[in-house]
Amino acid sequence: MRSHKTLPLTALTLAVTALLALLPAGASAQVQDHEKLKFPPMRSFTVPQPERITLPNGMLVLLLEDHELPLIEAGARIRTGSRLDPVDKVGLSEIFGAVLRTGGTTSMTGDQIDDFLEARAAVVETGASEDSTFATVSCLKQDFPDVVKVFSDILRNPVFSEDKIKIAKNSANAGIARRNDNPQGIMFREFDKLVYGAGSPYGRTTEYATIESISRDDLVAFHKKYLHPNRVILGLTGDFNAKEMASKIKATFGDWPKAPETKDPVATYQTSTKSGVYYIQKEDMTQSDIIMGHLGIQRDNPDFFAVEVLNEVLGGSFASRLFSNVRSKKGLAYSVRGSVGSNYDYPGTFTAWMTTKTETTAAGMDALLVEIDAIVAKPPTDQEVQLAKDSILNSFVFNFDSKMKILNQQITYAYFGYPSDFLARYRENIEKVTPVDVARVAKKYIHKDQMAILVVGPSKGQDRPLDSFGKVATVDITIPEAKGPAAPAASAQSLTKGKALFAKMVGALGGPAAVDAVKSIRIVGTDTRKGPQGEFSTKAVSTVSIPDRLHQEMTTPMGKMVMVMAGADGFVNTPQGTQPLPESQRAEVVRSLRRQPIALAQRRDDGEMKLQHLGEESIDGTKVENLLVTIAGDELRLSIDPATGRILRQAYRGQDQMGPADYVVSFSDFRQVSGLTLPFKSARTRNGEPHQSMVVEEIVINPNVDAAMFAQPESPTASKEPK
Question: Is residue 579 domain-shared with residue 696, that is, in the same domain?
Fold first, then answer.
């Protein structure tokens, strides 16, 4: 048999000719002249409408049948949201939304609910957003009668168990700890503060202190105030008969008492943006994120549909002006977008934003400003408007590709008081938009002289100073630290005793001369940590060059990992590559270097260091004296054996990727090394739970240290070129 790779040319020619013969007449000519292709008008499409019932207690129920699969899905939208959080408890709705589901009910614990749902392959989830709390259900049709009872129990009878509150608060704190790691996240967050106002519910952020202040009583009060049937819209879609389902819902939720109607406080925001140039310094970047804009519109604005077409022309697709001119032609952007944003019951924001190389920061800003000018001064052409409308209308069908999407849209419209056929009229209204309409709304809603311009990026390397665009205001994104228990007021006696106890500690280490002789130290040992999958151990080699350089190498099953801290700069190298150490981690590493006993001892004459005696206690039967060391704003509590002067324990408030926590480190197995007495074993707890331990094999004082081991690669990111 002849292989197809050696098929004679004549045979191939005959095969292609035969294939072409099957095509419709003129098909090849149409492909060659694609601009002359003619298409029939799009067919009309009727959006399915759910059946609506309102229970006597005020709950609105939407029912939409879908018999494709034997499944039922439900979603409840509850009139709450983070914009109702008290100013001193920002994050309350976030914790409420999480623990509403996980915290159990008066009849089942959260874990029992987990087991119940898992046995049926069912899902119930709850959460919160800016303007609402949501609860969703998904299960097999046959299990719905049982699952909906649990769903109702969660909404009506939550108990908010303390252990689940703790987990939710830890998760919230972890989000706070990492919020400055993502440059675009910083950009959008801080831009909202500039536009809406830092004190507005649309601009404020959760903090460690606001999360810490939230108690179970707050969650119970929040539920009592806001979660009532007349504040709930429940939508269901799936394999059911609407009449029969209406009866089931009435039987399940009908006896839920209605609450008196109340008017929620209106979330305020500033009505004009403070124009100007703003800068956020972030040194662990090789690019700049740039955003500029001001307040946008509400979605019920009569100009909404013309604005939608404007947005498509400006920055909605690969054919948009921003993408074509800034990214493709000028090659300035990794990503670029722009639109006049809209929300349902408060204004969105007009934004034009991009990511560019540090060395093209000013050029990128110029390019955005040129396009903002042009969209007003040089209105979109007939061709641009038609292309934008076609793009919107051709993708319109994806709003209806599932019954759940349609149902969620109807829930949203009902929630915000929009007509139920709002989306159905969308296509008709888009088709009516003319180039004159687009030109008019561009002038009406885009105001270059009212914009706030925000840049996030490193302080060096820009092609032109930012102040060439106007006076620059620096934005501080420092995360306020969580405060631990306040120390007792210091007395002259406690300060005197503190200095004496610290001197005894220095003597126990080896004395001033031996301590001051230490310039570097290398520690080799086995580091054991507790993770989600259990304990794991790694071989660790840490080299410290006092006062502020650290090279830590860890051998793991995934390969070698190296973390380096050199002054204010830090990076981590893994088998996946080299990346800057996130800002929050850098700050904690700096603190950890200051906490080392030798580093503390070397600063014994530092006038900034405060030493306060805190009294005595017993640790595992050993009497200790407690010393509070305050340095550079950090507090470290040392428990010292008065008989030997050795540090047996240190306690401090620290921070990791999971947020702030209280750490306690216990030291043991003291040995002599080069005239110093140092511990060879340590164990650390995090919030009272075992977290990490270290068994030291070798300590070397003043090893030969190659300065190159602290050098940071020139480019920690993969590429600087726009993609």
Answer: yes
At 656, the pLDDT band (50, 70, 90 cuts) reads confident
How many separate helices (H) and strands (E) can be counted in the chain?
Answer: 21, 26
**Which residues, including other chains, have CB under 8 Å from residue 365's CB and lie 6 or more apart?**
290, 292, 453, 455, 469
Total domains present in the chain: 3
In our burial notation (b when 16+ CB lie closer than 10 A, e otherwise), range 345-354 reads ebbbbbbbbb
Which residues does residue 53 pair with via DSSP β-bridges, in sequence order? 61
Only one residue has tokens 């069908």, namely 397
Compute the mean pLDDT over every residue in the chain, rounded to the nearest whole number. Answer: 90
Residue in the structure block whose two tokens are 């300590």: 699
What digits encode the pLDDT tens for the residues 142-184? 999 999 999 999 999 999 999 999 999 999 998 998 899 899 9
What pLDDT sits at residue 71?
97
Quick one: 379 and 510 in the same domain? no
Tell me what pLDDT residue 19 has: 43
Would you say residue 341 lies in a domain?
yes
Residue with tokens 């303007």: 131
Helical spans, DSSP H, in 417-547: 426-432, 435-445, 492-509, 512-516
Residues 703, 542: contact at Cβ < 8 Å? no
Q: Are residues 283 and 217 in the same domain?
A: no
User: Do 669 and 561 have their domain in common?
Assistant: yes
3-state DSSP assignment of residue 137:
strand
State how far the Cα of 602 lies from the Cα of 295, in Å rounded to an integer: 55
Is the domain of 499 the same as that of 639? Answer: yes
**Residues 6+ away with beta carbon under 8 Å from 668:** 648, 679, 680, 681, 682
Torsion of CA 272, 275, 279, 280, to 10 degrees: 0
CA pair distance 334, 522, nearest whole angstrom: 42
Q: Is residue 470 part of a domain?
A: yes
Using N-to-C axis directions, what is the helix angle for 92-102 and 216-226, rounded to 10°? 90
Residues 511, 645 contacting (CB under 8 angstroms) = no
Question: 393: phi > 0 → left, psi -120 to 50 → alpha, else beta; which?
Answer: alpha
Question: What integer is the mean pLDDT of 240-244?
Answer: 97
Tokens of 548: 């502020």
Asked if the bond preceding 547 is cis, omega within 30° of 0, the reply is yes
Residue 280: the pLDDT is 97
690 lies in which domain range? 492-710
Nearest Cα neighbor of 482 from 280, 685, 284, 206 is: 206
What is the CATH number for 353?
3.30.830.10
Q: How is residue 338 annotated by DSSP? A: E
For the stretch 266-297, what's the b/e string if a residue is b when 16 or more beta carbons lie within 10 angstroms of its beta carbon? ebebbeebebebbbbebebbbbbbbbbbbbbb
Tokens (6 digits) for 656? 């990791």
Cβ-in-10-Å burial (0-12, 13-18, 19+) of 389 comes to: buried
Predicted TM-score (pTM) above 0.70: yes
244 lies in a domain? Answer: yes
Using DSSP's 3-state secondary structure scheme, residue 250 falls into: helix
Q: Residue 41 falls within a domain, yes or no?
A: no
Helix (H) or strand (E) holding 235: strand 232-238
Looking at the structure, do residues 290 and 209 belong to the same domain, yes or no? no
CATH number, residue 573: 2.50.20.10
- If asked whether residues 153 and 110 sit together in one domain, one would say yes
Lowest mean pLDDT among 297-306, 672-681, 685-694: 685-694
Q: How far apart are CA 228 and CA 264, in angstroms?
A: 14
Instruction: Please tell me whether residues 690 and 626 are part of one structural domain.
Output: yes
Residue that is written with structure tokens 């004679």 in the block: 8
The secondary structure of 36-80 as a DSSP string is G---PPPPP-PPP--EEEE-TTS-EEEEEE--SSSEEEEEEEES-
